[in-house]
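If it is no trouble, might I ask you for a protein's amino acid sequence along with its backbone structure tokens?
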Amino acid sequence: KKVIVLEKHIISGGLNSYYQRRVPGSKELLKFDVGLHALTNFARKGERKRPLTKLLKQLRIPHDQLKLKEQTHSLIKFGATELKFSNDFQLLLSEIELNFPNERDHFLKLLGKIESFNELDLSSTYIPSRQILSQYIKEPLLVEMILAPLLIYGSSWENDMDFSQFVIMFKSIYLEGFSRPEGGVRTILDLLKDKLSSCGGEVRFNAEVVGIETKGDTHEVILKKGETLRAKKIFSSMGLPETYNILNDNRNDQYIGNLSFTEALIVNDDKSFLENFTPTIVFYNKTDSYSYESPSSLIDQDSAVICFPDNYERDNTNGRGLVRVTNIANNDQWCSLHKKDYLANKEKVYNGALSLSQNLIGKKLNPIYQDVFTPKTITRYTNHFSGAVYGSTLKKKDGRTDYPGVYIIGTDQGFLGIVGAMLSGISMANLHGLMDE
């Protein structure tokens, strides 16, 4: 098939992209990932039947080219209660036995339910995860702690998620685990671009799509610069409501998600602060109850995800140290701020992130650079309505829209994370792109 990929910006990635900044008063360049805290669905070379292994086989990309670095461990911290997990599922099981001894057998029964559930059934309907969890786990705090990483790493629903999505995330995070490619998200994007090019595909940058018009069995794709392309099949990764919007379908408002985030980047002068602090990611919540919803204020200061990317490569102690702190944010409030207030509140977010990080680590940091992105940044660079990181609350599991020949891929099709997004593209291309419908 003749394939063209249209990218709005000058680089690929969208929600999982990258950029660089110069240290003030220096020629030193700092490289940052956007989005990527971890690559989920970890699989070692040769491990069969795992999503990452299947993905690489389909794309004919050798496992070694990802140069994956495994997590040390991650930490779920709710008040004084902590649960560690790693790429060895036995660690999480032992932590539950230690902190919730009466729940061990209940948790194993839940695990059996998860392993027998077909989360890839394209015809399944929404089932609340909390409803299923309450049938197995009796301790409310454990329910909250199990849910928190899965919600904040993939749910477009407030305070809950579809059970099929829960199963996808549970397997990808707890049963398979986290890793990070050497070089960050650039490594993945470069591999994909090279593979597409070698197969005869074309990528066109600075090619924002502003309209799709259906004419018989052919669609006209209208670019912002005025050019029109024609295609029989279109696969849209821009999101379901955003796709309906450029189809001039006024139903798109009802599908817009409500969950957005801020992220503060703290660059320390070195990595010495990590000497006795080993988690790659900390899922922090101040109380026993987790509020996963758009906050009434600019950000939710009672919960955060704190990522320490350098802990994926603890053998590399040279260079700067990085801390990334993510908070749930209110898109409407951020977007209504005037410039002066906007900048002042970004500074407040940074100061809060710095304080929380120092309290967790137990050491004072010596930052040389800082940056903060907000829902406003997300909307600017992704065109996602309301800065919705995980897209619409309506997922099109079979990829079909109401417009024959127009299909949804990515988060709004229903597969989550970087690996999920790639599997979504492959699945929908196989299902719809290689068949005449």
In short: The chain has twelve helices and 18 strands. The two ends are 15 Å apart (CA to CA). The chain has a mean pLDDT of 94. The longest strand covers residues 260-268.
